Amino acid sequence: MPPDQIDSVVQSFTRRPTTFRVNPLKTNHADLLADLSKLGFEIEPVNWYADAFILRNKSKAELIETPMYQHGELYVQSLSSMIPPLVLDPQPGEKICDLAAAPGSKTTQIAAMMRNTGEIVANDRSKIRLHKLVANLKLQGVTNVRTRLTSGEDLWKRFPEYFDRTLVDAPCSLEGRFEAGNPKSFDGWSLRKVQLLSAIQSHLLRSAVSATKRGGAIIYSTCTLSPEENEQVIDWILQKEPGVVEVESIELPMPGLQAGITHWERKDFSPAVHDTIRILPSRTMEGFYIARLRKIKSNVD
Question: Which CA distances in Å does 275 have to 129, 251, 301?
Fold first, then answer.
């Protein structure tokens, strides 16, 4: 963390307000907000994403009891989690891969952005989590997704250089979601876990690169802060696939962004990782990391 940001980051490890996005496949902003207002909900818009809102006066439990939630007109999701699909920027009619998709927050957002056109392959290796994904797709009215239950590391073998864009929202150590008052949020953390996850993340990302067409985009994201799971993974893919991908800069209209770091402990990373971004934890935002890669050369025979 930047030294001048450490105090505010530490203060941010508390419960954040409930945030959600409108599902345009089922409703529109005006109707949803009017219906919530009638039930006494006070909603604040998010200035960098028209579909996102902050709940100011009631609990998440109260929100999910509303008919609007139960009809799939909104999706409860952290603000930071909404950003990787925006960086992915899927276009109607494209072929998209969500490599580690369950429970479907970003898959349903991508489908809404594509207006249920094109094709999304949503993969997960957990059967239980995949069931949750399928339920969320149905509730949200998504019809352009086909799900797969398989190892993300091997997905490229079934879909070599098939996708226009691929999202790798990788399983991670969740450091950006820690809550000081909730020991369950950090009880499972350890340096060993970070190291094990870094290896998994690296191979997931390599599979994503192999599954993406030349000229396509690959978005890598985590909700953690550790360089081993973030910049180190990008540095690894640049070394393992030299000349195959390049890092693209990311422009986002929001505060609290930090450039990717190029040195951690005794390791120097490629200068290119400076163009990745860290979202610093705040009162409304979880800590997140996002990298955007462009595939510039085929790596599949």
Answer: 32, 10, 30
CA distance 84 to 222: 9
Assess whether the previous peptide bond of 103 is cis (omega < 30° from 0).
yes
C-alpha to C-alpha distance for 261 and 269, rounded to whole angstroms: 8
Other beta carbons less than 10 A from residue 213's beta carbon: 17
> Position of tokens 């360089």?
227
Angle at 287 between CA 173 and CA 210, to 5 degrees: 65
Burial annotation 248-282 (CB, 10 A radius, 16+ → b, else e)? bebeeeeebbeebbbeeeeeebbebbebbbbbbbb
- As annotated, the active-site residues are 223
Band of the pLDDT at 191, cuts 50, 70, 90? very high
What the block records as the tokens of 117 is 């056109």
CATH number of 78-295: 3.40.50.150
- For 47-104, write each residue's pLDDT tens digit: 999 999 999 999 999 999 999 999 999 999 999 999 999 999 999 999 999 999 999 9
Which sequence spans correspond to the domains of the chain? 17-77, 78-295
Q: Cα–Cα distance between 108 and 23 in angstroms, integer?
A: 9
pTM recorded for the entire structure:
0.96
Contact 81, 18 (CB under 8 A): no
Topology at the third CATH level for domain 17-77: Alpha-Beta Plaits (3.30.70)
What angle, rounded to 10 degrees, do the helices at 231-240 and 191-211 form?
40
Instruction: Kindly list the distances between the CA atom of residue 197 and the CA atoms of 171, 190, 192, in Å, as whole numbers in the listed order.
Output: 7, 11, 9
